[in-house]
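Thread amino acids onto this structure.
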C-alpha cells in the first residue's frame, strides 16, 4: 500500500509539473503570437502604403499609345 501511494504521489507530482510547464509554454506562445500579429499588421500597412505610392507613380507615367 505504501509503495502504491508513493507511486501515485510521484505521478501526481509529474502531472503537476507537466501542467505548469504547459502553462508556461502556452503563455510564451501567446506572447509570441501577439508579437507576430502586431508585426504582421505593421507589414501589411507598409505594403498598402507601397502599393498606393506605386499606383500614384504609375498614374503619372505618360501614355505611349
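Threaded sequence (65 positions):
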Amino acid at each position: 500500500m505504501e509503495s502504491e501511494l508513493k507511486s501515485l504521489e510521484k505521478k501526481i507530482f509529474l502531472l503537476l509539473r507537466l501542467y505548469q510547464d504547459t502553462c508556461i509554454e502556452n503563455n510564451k506562445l501567446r506572447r509570441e503570437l501577439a508579437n507576430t500579429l502586431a508585426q504582421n499588421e505593421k507589414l501589411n500597412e507598409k505594403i498598402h502604403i507601397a502599393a498606393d505610392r506605386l499606383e500614384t507613380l504609375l498614374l503619372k507615367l505618360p501614355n505611349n499609345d
